[in-house]
Amino acid sequence: MLGKLWGEGRLEDQPCRVGSLKTNLGHLGAASGIAGLMKVALSLHHRELFPMLNLNKVHAGIDLAASGLTAQTSLEKWPEKDGAPLAAITSTGLSGSNAHAVLQAMPEHDMPYFDYKNTSYLLPISAHTPEALQQATRNYAQFLAAPAHPTIHNLCASASITRSHRLYRSVFQGQTIAELSNQIEAALSTGSTFSQGHITMHTHTPLRVAFAADIETSENWATCCKHLLAEPAFFALISECDHILDEALSWSLMTYLDDAHQEQRLSEPAIKQIGNLVLVLGLARLWIQWGIVPEALITEDMVLAQAISNLAAQLPLKQVFVQLLQQRVPELQLESLDSSDIAPLLLPIFSCDNAEALHAMDCTLILELGTTNEQTPEKLQEIPWLTVLQSGEPKTYRAELLATLGYCYQHGAAVDWRQVYSAPFRMVNLPTYAWQRKRTWLDWLSVEEISTAPEEKYRTAVVETSSPVSATAEPATLRQQLAELAAGDRTAFLLSHFSTTIMQLLELESNPQLQREDTIFALGLDSVTITQLLNHLQQQLGCALPFTLLFNNQTLGTVIAELLSIIDRPATEKSMQIAHQPA
């Protein structure tokens, strides 16, 4: 079939290469298909043809050359030709299920990449142990010191999005690859990354965040909003609020930010109140989208608390936003909306004076949604209190946000990195996880269990559980037991023997009580267990059996009938039949 599909019409010096992963990894059962997919994807990525092992002789009935195929037995570069490389994967099952997929390699030229201008990136590195974290950091240092390195956007997006994040964590921040490299080298030379709080480990109490939120009257709200529009989550929140404002007031905040002279129909105090309100809600949406979800709120404004609670629960914002406008800007004289469908508050609300309650809920971080750096209340000084956007420098806003996010990440936050790096990126081949070279052993695993050949283990187990005769020094083989039975009883006996054997092979808790009408492939056997079953039968019967015995017969009844016919044949006839079987 593969020859007809991919081999026909090929030149003799350009055959289709054929390989198998089973010779490299062994039998993988249900994982064989995905393993084959991974092998082909890696082959396309590296532009190399991987060899299969231990192929000494091709079956005499298969003419690869005539089919336009050849076995891939050595590592080679992918043949040069026009167009992107193509490869196919075929996966077949004993039950007759077949799957075939065709993969095409990515173009070798770089895709357009995205970089934030004049801002920084976070490079997270994590590991299972402090030693592994230190080694992983060294690997990144060597990787970044190489002459050819990726863009900082591709590097940080790949490290953040495509890697799992372990218990021990470190994070580096910079605007360029050189800055990241210098920070990593400095950390490795001083050991600060691994001894002064840059390593954190999940505890029984994970990072628990409370948002501190009150509507300020900041004069630079417009500058903050303009520069935060580059963040997709913030832009989405302002767009949602702008739509509500346009419906209620026929006034656009987005237009005002673009050109204030076009939208002067509202008073400056009213615009300032609207702008500061949207800024706080936008920051709340941004943190929530990045994975920093509050478990409590510190505020005196219950309507604002309702709005942030809705954002955290991904509930509609319109009704509660209009309530905030009515409360904060009464001069707008907005009509009240139906508030019957406003969801109840889903987050606990505290005041700054209620420090005991915050300590009781094990709050580990207070994140202020604002632009001022007010003094932390004395009662809450034991809990870290972070305020972002306090520098007043728009160019540093994203850097300040990422610095706070890095703190959260180091303390165990499950950051949604796809929201942080939402722009397209090209995946980078990152340094691999360091091999720990530590002995790992399952205490419950028996040495005798793994050292006994499967056919021997199952032969012994089946003989002990299925033999109807009294135990003797030498247990009777299956052939001896059949010889002692009447012809009419042998089918039922073999059916019982099959049930017991299959129970042992599949490690079932009870005997499946098979029937003659049961089909072979409905029993849950795969190629390995079928081979073990065949080996067991050959050992117990003391004769060679054709490998096709369990494939050519659809039901247990027909398998048993053919098995009995083989047993009853003269020895010379059986040996001749086995000798003429194809290899």
Describe it for me?
This protein has 583 residues and is of the alpha/beta class. The chain has four domains: 2-104, 3-Layer(aba) Sandwich (Peroxisomal Thiolase, Chain A, domain 1), CATH 3.40.47; 113-202 and 412-435, Alpha-Beta Plaits (2-Layer Sandwich), CATH 3.30.70.3290; 209-397, Malonyl-Coenzyme A Acyl Carrier Protein, domain 2 (3-Layer(aba) Sandwich), CATH 3.40.366.10; 447-579, Non-ribosomal Peptide Synthetase Peptidyl Carrier Protein, Chain A (Orthogonal Bundle). The chain is 42% helix and 9% strand. It has helices spanning 2-7, 22-25, 32-46, 130-145, 152-161, 177-190, 221-228, 232-249, 253-258, 268-289, 302-312, 318-328, 355-360, 397-410, 417-420, 447-451, 454-466, 478-483, 490-505, 527-541, 549-552, 556-568, 571-579, and strands spanning 16-18, 48-49, 69-71, 76-77, 86-92, 98-104, 121-127, 168-174, 209-212, 296-298, 349-350, 365-368, 385-387. Strand 5 (86-92) and strand 6 (98-104) form a beta hairpin. 27% of the residues are buried.
Total beta strand runs: 13
The percentage of residues in β strands lies in 5-15%
Number of helices: 23
Total individual domains: 4
Q: What fold name goes in the CATH topology slot of the largest domain?
A: Malonyl-Coenzyme A Acyl Carrier Protein, domain 2
Give the CA-CA distance, first to last residue. 20 Å
- What integer value in Å does the Rg equal? 35 Å
Q: Summarize the main sheet.
A: 5 strands, parallel
Report strand order across the widest sheet.
11-10-9-12-13
Q: Spans of 5+ residues with little confidence (pLDDT < 50)?
A: 461-475, 572-583
Q: How does CATH name the architecture of the largest domain?
A: 3-Layer(aba) Sandwich
CATH class of the largest domain: Alpha Beta
Spell out the CATH superfamily of the largest domain.
Answer: Malonyl-Coenzyme A Acyl Carrier Protein, domain 2
InterPro entries: Ac_transferase_dom_sf (IPR001227), ACP-like_sf (IPR036736), Ketoacyl_synth_C (IPR014031), PKS_assoc (IPR032821), PKS_NRPS_Biosynth_Enz (IPR050091), PKS_PP-bd (IPR020806), PP-bd_ACP (IPR009081), Ppantetheine_attach_site (IPR006162)
Keywords: Phosphopantetheine, Phosphoprotein, Transferase
GO molecular function, one term: phosphopantetheine binding
Pfam family, one: Ketoacyl-synt_C
